[in-house]
Each structure stands twice: as structure tokens, then as C-alpha cells.
Amino acid sequence: MRLVLGIESSCDETAAAVVAEDRRILSNIVLSQLEDHRAYGGVVPEIAARAHLDHIERVVSEAMATAEVGFADLAGVAATTGPGLIGGVIVGATVGKSLALVHDKPFIAVNHLEGHALTCRLTDNVPFPFLLLLVSGGHSQFLSVAGVGQYRRLGGTIDDAVGEAFDKTAKMLGLGFPGGPAVEQAALSGDAARFALPRPLLGRPGADLSLSGLKTAVRLAAEKLPAPVSAQDLSDLAASFQAAVGDLLADRLKHALADFLAEHPGGKHVVIAGGVAANKALRARLQTTVATAGLELVAPPLKLCTDNGAMIAWAGLERLRRGESHGFDAPCRPRWPL
Ligand code: KG4
Ligand code: ZN
């Protein structure tokens, strides 16, 4: 039974996990740096890199202790080597490479996006091929996934990522940081029909997304709110924004599905992954679209949607069992498309 240690440090979570080849998560330690960044209303790369350095040793030790394994028990060490905030990536990748070197284990350089993409195989054993909607703070794209490393891009955002739009909306409405969960929470008690917001690209051919017009419309609507602005006003605007995103994603998903099924007529699964996949209202909205098309929507458990070490360990395992590992010269990359 192969075990892999996975290390993640590409954004503001310092994380490590031990995962077994039979899909057991033996440990999954995630240390969020939220408090370090809150005062700035967003992630500050330099602060993130230093915080990773402060915490990573403790997080890795805790992951090993919780899993009750020693380094000798590992089949390999995997770490995110991109894409992401490069200072943090370098910290995690260097620790991963060093541990692999000292304990004479293979090192696996993992693409963070592949970690999100393959999480559904760890949690739900989803077979290839599947259609993936990857929605996070930095990325929003539809991918046809035919196998490990076999990704075809069907469409994606032409401006902001979906998570970024949630974060900016939260900032404009003063709902706090991180934005996604704050908008979702506020929207729970809001009237989604109160504000008529645009749905850019709706009905257009292809599976591209655009969020910037919607973001501007939220800003204009927020500026027009009569003083004093009430909590109900903010909830209504949050709910209207979230509904617009839902309509947009559902429409684009229909187009991506047609493209995916043309290539893989027997395809059965649509997977939503990345931080935004934690949004329950969006999951429910997409569930309807996917069920109508006769396919199954798979969404990982909430805590495996946002950044974590288990997804990196699992992607490392998927690579390792294909006989792949990487040299200690594996580069750290701020940009690394799938
Ligand atoms: O995958 P992730 O943890 O980090 C990146 O790789 O980007 O995604 C973080 C993004 C943030 O933009 C955050 O606001 C968004 O995911 N997010 C959400 C929710 N939880 C996290 N967006 C909408 N609703 C949520 N519940
Ligand atoms: Zn991520």
C-alpha cells in the first residue's frame, strides 16, 4: 500500500497530508493564514511566503504524526510546484524536495490545478473521462479530462476568475475577507430578484466566461443604494450577484457539455472543483443543469474543495503509480496551465 505525503503552499494555506493508494486520507492538516491577511483585505504575497516558512515544519510534522507514519513508510513526497504565489510555492517545494532527498524517496512535482482536478477520484473514485469545471480564486475553466495529464480546455474566463469576482464583490459590499463564504452567507437572507444584473456572454456559442461586466454592475448598484445602507440591502445585492453567477455558469456549462459529449459520447460525470465549488447555492444550480442532461454532478466535500494537502498527495500518487517522479531541479512556476 503506497503512502504519499503532499505539501501545499501556493496561496494562503500552509497544508500537508498523508494519503494512501486505497484512497484513505490518513491526515489532512490545513493552517489558514486568514488572520495574517485580513487587515489588507486580500492575500499579500510577501506575508504569505514568510508565514509558510514560519509554519511549514509544524504542519508537516503534524501531518506525519496524525497519520502515525514515519518517512520510511512513504512511497514518495509530493509538493505543489505551481501555479501560484511564487514565494510560497518555493517554500513548500523546497521542503518537499529536501525531505525526499534526506529520506531517499521519489519527489513528485504537482500542478496545483491538477490537484483540484483529480480530487474527485480520491473522494468519489470518478472514472475518466469527465467534464471538469475548475473554479477558484485564480482560475475558472472547463476542461475535458480524458486521463491523468490529458486535459483539453473547452473554455474559460476571458477576464476575472469566479472566485476573484466573489472576493471583489465582498470587498465592495464590505462583507469581509475571504469573500466567497461571506457572499454566500449574506445571500442566504437576500432577495435575488431585487437587482437586475447582467449575465455576460449568456447564450453565446462556446464555453467562455466573463465576469468583469457583472462586477462593475455590482459596484454601480452598491453606489446607488440610498443611505443608510441596511444589512438587507447588502444581502439582496449579494444574492442577486450569486444568482447571476449561477445563471452564467449553468449556461456556459451547457455549451461545455455539448462539446464534451461530442468527444466522449459515453461520458457520465461532471465534476466541480476549486474553492468556489464549496458554494452550496452554485452546486445546487449546476446540479439541475447536469441532471437535466442525464449526467451526474460530483462535488468533493467542502473541506477538500479549498486548498489542502490531500489533493496534492493524491495527484502525486496518481503520477507515481504511472511511474512518474521528478528531479530536484523541477522548476517552481508562477504560471503553469494544465
Ligand atoms: O482553490 P482555492 O482555495 O484557492 C485558489 O487556488 O485560488 O479557491 C479560493 C477561492 C477564493 O476566491 C474564495 O473566495 C472562493 O474560492 N471561495 C468561494 C467559497 N469558498 C471559497 N466562493 C464562493 N462561495 C464559497 N462558499
Ligand atoms: Zn486552489
Tell me what the structure shows.
With 338 residues, this protein is of the alpha/beta class. It folds into two domains: 3-118 and 304-320, ATPase, nucleotide binding domain (Nucleotidyltransferase, domain 5, 2-Layer Sandwich); 128-267, 2-Layer Sandwich (Nucleotidyltransferase, domain 5). Helix content is 45%, strand content 19%. It has eleven helices and ten strands. It has a five-stranded mixed β-sheet with strand order 3-2-1-4-5, sandwiched between helices. The longest helix has 33 residues, at 231-263. The chain binds 5'-O-[(R)-(carboxyoxy)(hydroxy)phosphoryl]adenosine and zinc ion. Zinc ion binds next to helix 4. 5'-O-[(R)-(carboxyoxy)(hydroxy)phosphoryl]adenosine is lined by residues 11, 136-138, 163-164, 166-167, 178-181, 184, 274-276, 278-279, 306-307.
User: pLDDT below 50 for ≥5 consecutive residues: which ranges?
Assistant: none
Question: What proportion of the residues form beta strands (DSSP E)?
Answer: 15-25%
Helix content: 40-55%
Main β sheet profile: 5 strands, mixed
Shape category: globular
Query: Which structural class best describes the helix and strand composition?
Result: alpha/beta
Radius of gyration: 20 Å
State the fourth-level CATH superfamily of the largest domain.
ATPase, nucleotide binding domain
User: Separation of termini?
Assistant: 28 Å
**How many domain regions?**
2
Binding site for Fe cation: 112, 116, 307
Keywords: Acyltransferase, Cytoplasm, Iron, Metal-binding, Transferase, tRNA processing
Main location: cytoplasm
Catalytic activity: L-threonylcarbamoyladenylate + adenosine(37) in tRNA = N(6)-L-threonylcarbamoyladenosine(37) in tRNA + AMP + H(+)
